[in-house]
Amino acid sequence: MIAQFKTFWSERSQRERVLLGVMFAMAAAMILWFGIARPLAAARIRAEARLATASDEAGLIAARRAFRDGAGGGYHGTVSAIDLVRSTGSAAGFTLTRVDSDGTGGVSLAIASAKAPALFGWLAGLERQGLRVATIDLHANADGTLGADATLKGGK
């Protein structure tokens, strides 16, 4: 087969050889692009979407588990509201940028970045523990997460 190709190639003029070389190079580039690069890029995009969905679900599950396992069956006022917010927030995977007493027995908190399902699951769990959301200010971040400033009431 190589001998046949050498015969074929030697029978071509210099101009034909250049054109055939360009054609083979373009064909190889198209095979690489449409056969390897594009499918890999599409697979990466699908994997990132699955990862984002799984991260949302994992945060929600972690928030639910933190309230089911870590709060001792309900908030009875045995720990301060600030300690409850800090412990359950860190168990749910949040970085609380601010947790302060608001001076009236409630807690003022700030979260810079959180996935919406996990954040609302955590806040719902806090309400089941006896801390209701009095005020909340949400803002969207560029990465698709939410930032939150909230005031919780009902704790000691």
Describe, in plain words, how this protein is organized in 3D:
This protein is α+β, with helices and mostly antiparallel strands and 156 residues long. Helix content is 58%, strand content 20%. It has four helices and four strands. It has helices at residues 2-10, 14-70, 81-91, 116-128, and strands spanning 96-101, 107-114, 132-140, 146-153. It has a four-stranded antiparallel beta sheet with strand order 1-2-4-3, covered by helices on one side. A hairpin with a 5-residue loop joins strand 3 (132-140) and strand 4. The chain is rod-shaped and about 95 Å long. Mean pLDDT is 85; it is low at 70-75.
Key phrases:
single chain, alpha+beta, four-stranded antiparallel β-sheet, 4 helices, rod-shaped
The count of DSSP E runs of length 2 or more, i.e. the number of strands, is: 4
How far apart the termini lie comes to 87 Å
Give a quick account of the main beta sheet: strands, pairing sense, barrel closure. Answer: 4 strands, antiparallel
Q: Unreliable stretches, pLDDT < 50, 5 or more residues?
A: 70-75
Q: Tally the helices: what do you get? A: 4
Share of residues in helices: 55-70%
- The fraction of residues assigned to DSSP E strands is 15-25%
- What value does the Rg take, in angstroms? 30 Å
Mean pLDDT over all positions:
85
**How are strands sequenced across the largest beta sheet?**
1-2-4-3
Secondary-structure-based class equals: alpha+beta
- Give the SSE order as H and E letters: HHHEEHEE
- Shape descriptor reads rod-shaped
